[in-house]
C-alpha cells in the first residue's frame, strides 16, 4: 500500500513540474507573440533609423501618453497651429507616423486613390495650364525652325486649407503599454479625414476647403463654356429612361478623348451602381461584369467601376450627376502640405484626452476634358 501511495505522490510531483514548465513556455510564447504583433512600437529596432528619428519617436510617445513635452521642446519641434490662432503648442508628428497617416488616408479615400497627388511646403501651388496646347513639330537637324505660336496659358492656383480631427482616448488606453498609440491615432484620424476629404473632392465649394469636380457646371456639348464638363442625359430624372441604358453609357465613353482612356474609370454612387447592374444590351447581356478574381475590379463596358461614398444617390424624380467617367489623374489635382500637427488636450473633453490634429489639404480640377458626366435628367 505504501508503495502505491509513493508512486502516486511521485506521479503528482512529476505532473506539477511538467505543468509549471508548460506554463512558463506558454508565457514566453505569449510575450513573443505580443511583441511581434505590435510593429512600430520600438523604433530602436528599425533598420536605418537615425538617432534623431528615434529621439523624436520617443519624445512624441511621451507626449501622447503622458502629456510630457519636455523632450519635444528640447528637439525644437513645437510650432503654432496657425498664424492667426492663439492656440500654440501643436507638435509636428514624426515622419514615420506622418507616412503611416498618408498611407491610411490613401487606402480609405477613393478619390485620393484615383487623382494626382502632390506635396508642397507652401500655402498654395500655382500650376500653368495651356488652353491651346504647346506647339511642336518634326524638323531636320539643319532646317530652319518654323516660328511657333505662343500658347495661351492660364494660371491655376490651388490653396491648401486646414483639415482637423479630434479623436479621443481614455487614460487607461494611453497607459496600456501593449497598445500602439501612434497606430491607433493614425487610424482614427485617417478614418475621419478620409470622409471629409472625399466629400470635398466631390462637392466642395472651394471656400476654406478643396473645390470638388461636381461643384462645376456641366452641359451638353453644344452648350459648353469655360470650366464646364460635358454631360450626357439619361432621359429621366433620377433614373435611366428604359432598361436599355447602354446608349447613354456608350455615348459617354465615345465622348472621352482616347488619350484619357487608358486609365479611365467609372465612378458612381451605390444606388447608381445598383441601377447599372440591372442594365442589359440589345442581346440581353448584362453590361456590368463582376470581378473575376479577388482584388480585381468589377467592370462596366471594359472599364473599372469604383463606388464612391459622397457621389449623389439616385432619387426618383430628382435630377443628379451620379456617374462620372474618365481619367481622374489627368482631371483632378490634390495638394498636401507637408507636416501633420497634434495638440494634446486633457481638459476640453474630460475624462477623455483629446488629440486636436491638423493637416493642410487642397484640391481642384485641372482638365475639364478628362471627365465626362452621366446626368440622370430628362
Commentary on this structure:
- The chain is of the alpha+beta class.
- It has a domain at 221-329.
- It is built from 10 helices and 19 strands.
- The chain has helices at 2-36, 51-66, 70-74, 95-108, 110-114, 171-175, 181-203, 246-255, 270-277, 328-331; strands at 78-79, 90-92, 116-120, 124-130, 153-159, 161-165, 168-169, 218-219, 229-233, 235-236, 239-240, 265-268, 288-289, 299-300, 303-307, 320-326, 332-345, 353-365, 371-376.
- It has an 8-stranded mixed beta sheet. Strands 1, 2, 3, 6, 7, 17 and 18 form a 7-stranded mixed beta sheet that branches.
- Helix 4 (95-108) crosses helix 7 (181-203).
- It is extended.
Layout of SSEs?
Layout: H1 2-36, H2 51-66, H3 70-74, E1 78-79, E2 90-92, H4 95-108, H5 110-114, E3 116-120, E4 124-130, E5 153-159, E6 161-165, E7 168-169, H6 171-175, H7 181-203, E8 218-219, E9 229-233, E10 235-236, E11 239-240, H8 246-255, E12 265-268, H9 270-277, E13 288-289, E14 299-300, E15 303-307, E16 320-326, H10 328-331, E17 332-345, E18 353-365, E19 371-376
Parallel strand pairs: 3-17, 8-9, 9-19, 12-15
Antiparallel strand pairs: 1-2, 2-17, 4-5, 6-18, 7-18, 10-11, 12-16, 13-14, 14-15, 16-19, 17-18
Question: Could you write a compact summary of the structure shown?
Answer:
33% of the residues lie in helices and 25% in strands. By secondary structure, it is of the alpha+beta class. It has an eight-stranded mixed beta sheet with strand order 8-9-19-16-12-15-14-13. Strands 1, 2, 3, 6, 7, 17 and 18 form a seven-stranded mixed beta sheet that branches.
Amino acid at each position: 500500500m505504501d508503495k502505491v501511495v509513493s508512486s502516486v505522490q511521485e506521479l503528482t510531483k512529476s505532473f506539477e513540474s511538467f505543468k509549471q514548465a508548460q506554463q512558463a513556455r506558454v508565457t514566453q510564447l505569449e510575450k513573443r507573440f505580443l511583441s511581434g504583433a505590435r510593429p512600430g512600437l520600438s523604433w530602436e529596432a528599425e533598420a536605418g533609423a537615425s538617432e534623431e528619428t528615434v529621439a523624436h519617436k520617443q519624445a512624441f510617445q511621451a507626449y501622447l501618453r503622458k502629456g510630457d513635452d519636455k523632450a519635444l521642446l528640447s528637439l525644437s519641434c513645437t510650432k503654432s497651429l496657425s498664424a492667426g490662432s492663439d492656440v500654440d503648442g501643436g507638435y509636428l508628428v514624426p515622419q514615420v507616423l506622418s507616412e503611416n497617416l498618408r498611407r491610411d488616408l490613401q487606402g480609405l479615400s477613393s478619390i485620393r486613390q484615383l487623382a494626382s497627388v502632390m506635396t508642397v511646403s507652401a500655402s498654395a501651388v500655382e500650376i500653368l495650364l495651356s488652353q491651346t496646347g504647346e506647339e511642336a513639330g518634326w524638323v531636320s537637324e539643319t532646317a530652319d525652325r518654323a516660328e511657333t505660336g505662343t500658347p495661351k496659358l492660364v494660371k491655376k492656383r490651388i490653396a491648401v486649407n486646414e483639415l482637423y480631427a479630434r479623436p479621443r482616448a481614455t487614460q487607461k488606453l494611453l497607459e496600456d503599454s501593449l497598445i500602439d498609440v501612434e497606430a491607433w491615432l493614425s487610424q482614427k484620424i485617417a478614418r475621419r479625414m478620409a470622409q471629409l476629404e472625399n466629400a470635398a473632392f466631390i462637392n466642395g465649394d472651394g471656400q476654406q476647403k478643396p473645390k470638388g469636380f461636381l461643384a462645376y457646371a456641366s452641359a451638353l456639348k453644344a452648350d459648353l463654356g469655360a470650366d464646364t464638363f460635358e454631360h450626357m442625359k439619361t432621359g429621366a430624372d433620377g433614373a435611366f429612361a428604359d432598361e436599355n441604358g447602354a446608349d447613354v453609357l456608350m455615348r459617354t465613353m465615345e465622348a472621352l478623348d482616347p488619350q484619357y482612356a487608358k486609365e479611365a474609370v467609372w465612378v458612381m454612387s451605390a444606388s447608381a451602381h445598383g441601377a447599372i447592374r440591372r442594365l442589359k444590351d440589345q442581346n440581353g447581356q448584362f453590361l456590368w461584369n463582376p470581378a473575376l478574381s479577388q482584388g480585381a475590379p468589377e467592370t462596366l463596358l471594359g472599364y473599372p467601376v469604383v463606388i464612391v461614398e459622397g457621389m449623389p444617390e439616385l432619387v426618383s424624380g430628382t435630377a443628379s450627376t451620379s456617374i462620372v467617367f474618365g481619367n481622374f489623374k489627368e482631371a483632378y489635382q490634390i495638394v498636401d502640405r507637408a507636416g501633420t500637427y497634434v495638440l494634446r488636450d486633457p481638459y476640453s473633453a474630460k475624462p477623455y484626452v483629446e488629440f486636436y490634429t491638423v493637416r493642410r489639404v487642397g484640391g481642384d480640377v485641372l482638365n475639364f476634358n478628362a471627365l465626362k458626366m452621366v446626368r440622370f435628367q430628362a
